[in-house]
Amino acid sequence: MSQSQSPFGQYPSSPAPALPPIPAGGPQRIQPIGYASPGWGANPVSGVWRDGAMVVLDRRATLPPMCFRCGGPPAGAPLKVNLTWVPKWIYLLLFTGVIPLVIVYLIVRKQATIYPYLCDRHRAQRKLWNGLLIASALTMFGSFFAAAVVSSGSTNDSLSSILVVAGLCGLGLLLIVAVARAAIMPTLVPTSIDLNHVHFKGVSSMYLNQLPDVNLAREQYMQQAYGATNVPSPYQ
To answer: For residue 218, which of 22, 13, 16, 6 has the smallest C-alpha distance?
Structure first.
């Protein structure tokens, strides 16, 4: 399946039937059966599916209450993650200049907000790495700022040099922490966003295994979404 396509195929040239209205108060989550059991995989019309290593989310649905890093029980409220996706061809506009790239980027970008969950362990891990990033950044900017103040207000070159070295060390630490965080805690990356669905990757295999396969859920989903088996599917 192409990443730029809907999980149910291309839309036809004829108008698609109207989507069911969103209930008052926003999309309603379908209650999962359980984590140890087939769980969400037993409910192919939940609005959340797996497509290889990707998650496919219906915009009217919400993500299941399980940690996207390990598939375990969640702890606390879900995270708010804003996703932005643009087609890859847009980066060819770099050869035309930055301004055309920015203009086309703002026109063609697609955005979505998702709410994934974390367990206690991975929530604490996230706080730790975020704290290290903030500390490294403060060390770098604070040292460079102090070096600028000292060098402009006195002749103490040795202190200024020490502060510059401290700032460079802070910069190095910031880069190391950023790379390590990206390796240990992969971020959720959109692979495609369209009118009805959000495709993204970055979840664990344990999370994916609890979701129904998108290819096995087409017929059941269309029956529920359109209320009848003989309604022409806009995805065929």
So the answer is: 6
What are the CA-CA distances from residue 162 to residues 63, 145, 166, 176 (Å)? 50, 12, 6, 21
Rounded to 10 degrees, the C-alpha dihedral 59/64/70/72 comes to 170
Choose among 118, 121, 27: nearest CA to 65.
Answer: 118
pLDDT in tens, 219-228: 666 666 655 4
Rounded CA-CA distance 53/95 in Å is 32
* pTM for this prediction: 0.65
Neighbours of 117 (CB within 10 A): 22
SS3 190: strand
Residue-wise DSSP of 4-58: TSBTTBPPPSSPPPPPPPPPTTSPPPPPP--SSSSGGGG-TTSSEEEETTEEEEE
Both tokens of residue 28?
A: 């309603």
Strand pairing report for 54-58 and 81-85 = unpaired
- Taking the CA atoms of residue 99, residue 103, residue 105 and residue 109 in that order, the dihedral angle to the nearest 10 degrees is 170
